[in-house]
């Protein structure tokens, strides 16, 4: 374990111990005002924690956590006021405060992240939900108390000290669980979605599903905070569900330092306590003071207060080791190369009036490495997109492994055995090499929610790419520090780590040295000729194509003009004419 990691762990443990001592012994030294305000502040910190997981780690800017908080608070108050406050009904209120927000979170998550939605659309939904919930409260009549809210119901018999300790304990447990989770292999998936959602999908993981489940889970946490608030305060009001409150949580998270867990928690507690204190001393100026501090913080510390500490302790992991797994041609021990794995029939693709692909017919079998060549604008990359994303509107049909891919999102196409490497390396820029490779294995290895493994088991060809390009020696290096060629090789290793049966490669040797190109060529020939994989390669390096291809397909102006052996295509007069600029097909 690195020294910086040990120091970080020591500081986190020390902070947790100090927090626990404050929770236990705080009531002995704090006055009634401080206990009241800090109890509320710690409840708000629980909400800031949920915003941090959504915004700081997953990249989802949300203003809707106030709605889930308010729903949990109102569910609690409505049960206690209109039904009763016996022990069994208190349990019912607790369950309702969590279940109702979870169900609402599932609905909001589906509306926000269904396939084809945009981050802007999700943010707009998060703006609308608190407004809608506030209007429902206003129109709820006696059940919700309308604009007056609900007050006077029986609550948990804990007293001010008891609520302070209960709230502090819940916040401490949630913060510890959150820190453990975000440092685990499963938690790093959130960062992968934030960095490059498209690559996550092309690794066979449904990012929309992850975001929906995360939204619902954190809605339940917000509902728990609402339950505590309704009991500790003895009153719930429409502003608890409102957009203004939701915006305040986002501001607290930003000021504390998003993507740190501890920063938003301390930010929410500090700002809310400061606001409560200033509202009494400066009743007409306190909001101006808080707003001024916000502006100064954004200018001076755009990363929030937590950046004062985190910049000195970069996130580190233990030494990562690589384990190569044996690779076989087929899971059943057979190599059925006579079967057509990819069948393209009359494929056409247009953007408005511009026809990019026209009537493409092509079959590819296991063991074949088919290179697609042609001048710029021939439609090569568009064809790769049509083979890897069934939601692309096309003419004709694309059948992979016996399945028509029409309507399948990229992760669905990956499940058929397809891996795609992009023209520009598509990886996760804030992660290390090891973390990127671990993301590529999530379809095959269930990630831990509590720890990060130090050993990565990769298929033999993927490990070979890393070894021969030297990347295996820098597994802990952030990918932002890799050269262009190293990034290309890493992405190829990630694709091969998926264990696909068909590999789509868009200029995999771009930026690589001659020695690296030779290495990649050897790996590709091993995958196809020896292990029975199918591969489709888009490449401009004709020497590279000649050395490794079993067939070459020539595209020109969106049409397939030639499909033949390497020698037939290389010596074709029409190819010479196309590349000299004289062909009009």
Please describe the topology of this protein.
Layout: H1 3-29, H2 32-57, H3 65-82, H4 87-113, H5 119-138, E1 150-151, H6 159-182, H7 185-195, H8 197-201, H9 207-233, E2 235-236, H10 243-256, H11 262-281, H12 286-300, H13 307-310, E3 321-325, E4 342-351, E5 354-364, E6 369-373, H14 380-388, E7 395-400, E8 403-404, H15 410-414, E9 418-421, H16 433-440, E10 455-459, H17 460-468, H18 484-497, E11 502-506, H19 514-530, E12 534-538, H20 542-548, E13 551-556, E14 559-564, H21 566-570, H22 573-580
Parallel strand pairs: 3-10, 6-12, 6-13, 9-11, 11-12
Antiparallel strand pairs: 1-2, 4-5, 4-7, 7-8, 13-14
Describe what this molecule looks like in 3D.
The chain has 585 residues and is an alpha/beta fold. It folds into 2 domains: 3-310, ABC transporter involved in vitamin B12 uptake, BtuC, CATH 1.10.3470; 324-580, P-loop containing nucleotide triphosphate hydrolases (Rossmann fold). Helices cover 55% and strands 13% of the residues. The chain contains 22 helices and 14 strands. The protein has helices at residues 3-29, 32-57, 65-82, 87-113, 119-138, 159-182, 185-195, 197-201, 207-233, 243-256, 262-281, 286-300, 307-310, 380-388, 410-414, 433-440, 460-468, 484-497, 514-530, 542-548, 566-570, 573-580; strands at residues 150-151, 235-236, 321-325, 342-351, 354-364, 369-373, 395-400, 403-404, 418-421, 455-459, 502-506, 534-538, 551-556, 559-564. A 6-stranded mixed beta sheet has the order 9-11-12-6-13-14, sandwiched between helices. Strand 4 (342-351) and strand 5 form a beta hairpin. Helix 2 (32-57) packs across helix 11. The longest helix has 27 residues, at 3-29. It is elongated and about 90 Å long. The protein starts with a helix and ends in a 5-residue tail after the last helix.
């Amino acid at each position: 374990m690195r020294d910086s990691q040990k120091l970080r762990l020591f500081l986190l443990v020390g902070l947790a111990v100090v927090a626990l001592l404050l929770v236990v012994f705080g009531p002995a030294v704090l006055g009634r005002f401080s206990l009241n305000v800090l109890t509320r502040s710690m409840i708000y910190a629980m909400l800031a924690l949920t915003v941090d997981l959504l915004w700081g780690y997953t990249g989802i800017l949300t203003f809707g956590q106030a709605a889930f908080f308010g729903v949990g608070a109102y569910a609690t108050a409505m049960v206690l006021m209109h039904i009763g406050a016996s022990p069994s009904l208190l349990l019912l209120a607790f369950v309702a405060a969590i279940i109702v927000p979870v169900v609402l979170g599932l609905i909001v998550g589906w509306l926000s992240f269904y396939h084809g939605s945009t981050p802007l659309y999700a943010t707009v939904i998060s703006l609308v939900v608190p407004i809608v919930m506030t209007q429902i409260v206003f129109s709820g009549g006696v059940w919700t108390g309308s604009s007056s809210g609900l007050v006077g119901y029986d609550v948990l018999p804990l007293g001010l000290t008891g609520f302070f300790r209960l709230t502090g304990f819940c916040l401490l447990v949630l913060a510890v669980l959150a820190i453990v989770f975000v440092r685990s292999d499963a938690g790093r998936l959130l960062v992968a979605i934030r960095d490059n959602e498209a690559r996550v999908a092309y690794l066979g993981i449904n990012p929309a599903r992850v975001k929906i489940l995360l939204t619902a889970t954190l809605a339940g946490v917000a509902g728990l905070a609402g339950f505590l608030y309704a009991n500790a305060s003895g009153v719930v009001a429409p502003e608890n569900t409102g957009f203004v409150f939701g915006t305040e949580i986002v501001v607290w998270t930003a000021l504390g330092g998003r993507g740190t867990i501890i920063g938003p928690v301390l930010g929410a507690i500090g700002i809310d306590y400061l606001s409560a204190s200033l509202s009494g001393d400066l009743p007409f100026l306190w909001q101006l003071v808080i707003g001024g501090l916000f502006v100064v913080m954004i200018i001076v510390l755009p990363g929030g207060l937590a950046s004062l500490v985190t910049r000195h302790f970069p996130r580190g992991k233990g030494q990562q080791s690589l384990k190569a797994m044996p690779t076989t041609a087929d899971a059943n021990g057979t190599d059925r190369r006579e079967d057509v794995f990819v069948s393209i029939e009359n494929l056409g693709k247009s953007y408005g009036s511009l026809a990019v692909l026209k009537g493409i017919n092509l079959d590819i079998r296991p063991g074949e490495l088919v290179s697609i060549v042609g001048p710029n604008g021939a439609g090569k990359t568009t064809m790769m997109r049509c083979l890897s994303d069934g939601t692309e509107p096309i003419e004709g049909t694309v059948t992979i492994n016996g399945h028509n891919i029409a309507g399948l999102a990229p992760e669905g196409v990956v499940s058929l055995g397809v891996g795609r490497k992009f023209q520009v390396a598509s990886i996760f820029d804030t992660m290390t090499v090891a973390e990127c490779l671990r993301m590529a294995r999530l379809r095959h290895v269930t990630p831990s929610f509590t720890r990060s493994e130090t050993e990565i088991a990769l298929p033999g060809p993927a490990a070979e790419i890393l070894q021969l390009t030297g990347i295996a020696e820098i597994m802990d290096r952030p990918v932002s520090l890799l050269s262009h060629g190293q990034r290309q090789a890493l992405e190829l290793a990630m694709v091969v780590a998926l264990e696909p049966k068909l590999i789509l490669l868009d200029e995999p040797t771009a930026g690589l040295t001659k020695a690296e190109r030779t290495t990649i060529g050897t790996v590709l020939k091993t995958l196809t000729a020896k292990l029975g994989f199918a591969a489709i390669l888009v490449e401009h390096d004709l020497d590279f194509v000649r050395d490794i291809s079993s067939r070459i397909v020539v595209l020109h102006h969106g049409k397939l003009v030639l499909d033949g052996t390497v020698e037939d295509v290389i010596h074709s007069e029409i190819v010479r004419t196309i590349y000299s600029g004289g062909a009009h097909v």
